[in-house]
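Objective 1b. Sequence-to-structure analysis of Protein kinase domain-containing protein.
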Amino acid sequence: MGCKPTKNGKSLDNPHDQPKITTKVDPRILQKYEIQALIGTGGFSKVVRVQHRATGQRYAIKMIETLNPVGQDTCERELQVLRRTKHQNIIQLIEVYEGSDKRIYMVLELASGKELFERIISESFDEKEAVRNIKMVLQGLAYLHNLGIAHRDLKPENLLYSHEGRDARLLITDFGFAGRRTTGGSEFTMKTACGTAEYVAPEVLLSIPYTVGVDLWALGVITFILLCGRMPFDDENKMNLYKKILKADYCMEGEEWESVSDNGKLFISSLLELDTKKRLKASDALNHAWIIEQKANFIKRTANAKSIRRTGSGKSNESSKHSNESKSLTSQNRRVRAKELDELLMYYRYGDKE
């Protein structure tokens, strides 16, 4: 949620005081930037909103603890991506500091609008608005995939609006799980088990080499949520959830789907496709009839939207992830883990496959 502090230090959008940062910060940062508020936290990072002392421009600074090997790996992955990218739908890296306190300070473009997640649960959409949002994500993905980069953790919590206006750009953020092409060639495969359970592609669950197509599967899940207000695959038990994903066991029937166009449903089906060779690529998806036609019919999705559960951890750039909505699922217990996939494969190898 975009936070607008008043004179008493409270957000106009949030009745609670904005969290203050108590962590010591490298003096070089303090010399150049005034720290205004703590706006996000993660397992190995904190995000603060700052103002450049000379220009008055506001930015976000992501402070990452690198003493922990996981934090260091996450930081390296994110920097490897952000140093290569410059696109209107990808969060922009401004500069980087290596602190004497063993932290990395990433100065980032400030996304002062809400997360896509928060707009889903708080606002109604017509299909034209849904298309506008998905098109922006596709443009960012097409750019990344052309560079040989896969996001691998695409979800509404990692999609932030540049500001609160209706014409805001939607920005892809959080590249801590990104995979990169390390050798030549337009096609490359990855093997690491990662991502968030509700959005993970079936080929990741099967522990087979996968491609950037995993991002398109995740976008199919996001589009499904955007159009009907609920998850296509939903179960708090992760093993049951994975079994549904492996069968592409989702349904586009019921009252909430009556007003969704046939092209919208076909678009989702072309992304939630088990056969990776048939699944649309980002560049092809941009030319899909649903994206091109942009129908403006209202969709009945708001009644279910409040029931969507958050899978994020609070690593937002500006958007507030401190709400009381949907705290039953945290990012840590919804992470895809290799040990779980070993158990899943054992089930399919020796257990009941029905």
